[in-house]
Amino acid sequence: MIELLVVIAIIAILAALLLPALASAKDRAKRLNCLSNMRQLGFACHVYATDNNGQLMIDTRGQPPNTWINGQDDLSWMYPQLIAAPKAFVCPGTKNNVRTDVFTVAADGASVLTDLMDTSPGGAQGTTGHSYEILGEVRGNKVTQMFYNDYAEQYNELFLGAKPGPTRFWLFYDNDNLGVNNVWDEPDNHGIKGGNITYGDCHAGWVKNWKPHNDEFRISLDWAKANHSMRGD
Fold first, then answer.
1. Which of 49, 70, 96, 134 has CB 3.0 to 4.6 Å from 120, enough for a Cys bridge?
2. Handedness of CA 19, 187, 77, 38 (dihedral sign)
3. pLDDT by residue (tens digit) across 45-70?
């Protein structure tokens, strides 16, 4: 009997040691799968640009030419011509889902998947909608390949006159709409730890909260810190 209790105690201790490591490995796998999705999104934009004079995305539906409105995260134009798998629009760290049998007639008359027209309103726990925001406008300029190459920061006091270029500008980022906007927190795809980014040149990477996120976000929108303080500054 004593031997059995000792064995049970040892098993309990081993489980307590191993479970956090297993959970961490599982989270890392989800981040990597999410990162793969975001590379696909970036690549799709550049494929689109080759046939559309450097335009990385469509115009926001119902708006004048060369217009993109941030916050209207319509990715329906990518499916299925540029990205055939609906799962590529969903971060595996979320409960988001893109239904392939629910359609909406968009402002331009196109019939598109409803769940690709915007991010999930319920954040990571939302069961409909996609998982990624697109940053397609900076200071009134629709983002294009030419924009990335030519634009110099006009308001960000740390980089005045500098050209971040496509390697620094964000193109896609993990949804941060629920909770505090423009900050990754608990309701978002990977919680408070950080999020994945696709940059203008198609490379993707993990960015931690708080300072790395805030600095990069302000570069990507050409925001002055004095006018746009952010949580964690």
1. 96
2. negative
3. 999 999 999 999 999 999 999 999 99
Provide the whole-model pTM. Answer: 0.89
Residue 180 confidence (pLDDT): 87
In angstroms, the CA 24 to CA 147 distance is: 39
Q: Considering only CA atoms, which of 136, 7, 120, 127 is closest in space to residue 61?
A: 136
Contacts of 188 (CB under 8 A, 6+ apart): 123, 124, 174, 175, 176, 178, 179, 195
Mean pLDDT, the chain, integer = 91
For the chain, which residues make up each domain, given as ranges? 27-221
